[in-house]
Specification:
2 domains; two-stranded antiparallel sheet; 3% strand
Length: 122
């Protein structure tokens, strides 16, 4: 009798482990096929089941990665993310380009269209 109970207990434990692994695999496959992150899945599930999606989104919100600070300078229309604060900034960039070989290669690779960014866009 004891041996039968031990076999049943082991089979139930094995069944639980297999079902846990199958559920994790199924969840991962669904996240990949629908191109969702786990946070997006939590918010969508909360919305679907009538829970409060704002509270779910707040619960799984990421912490800020960077300290917010104000940027100085004027945005350049051709490159809105690059801020130049005057002629000294441009001359600093030109000096760095002329003196730093690795920086020059990186800038030339991006400008020529043969870098990683152009491969991702193409």
């Amino acid at each position: 009798m004891r041996r039968v109970l031990r076999v049943v207990w082991n089979l139930l434990a094995l069944w639980g482990l297999v079902s846990l692994l199958a559920g994790a695999y199924l969840g991962f496959t669904l996240l990949r096929s629908y191109d969702l992150t786990p946070r997006q899945l939590v918010v969508k599930a909360a919305r679907k089941f009538g829970l409060y999606p704002q509270q779910a989104a707040e619960a799984v919100k990421l912490a800020p990665r960077y300290i917010p600070e104000t940027l100085e300078g004027e945005p350049v229309s051709g490159h809105p993310r690059i801020l130049f604060s005057g002629k000294e900034a441009i001359s600093t960039l030109r000096t760095r380009y002329a003196g730093d070989v690795t920086y020059r290669k990186r800038v030339d690779g991006i400008a020529s269209g043969s870098g990683i960014l152009s491969g991702a866009v193409a």
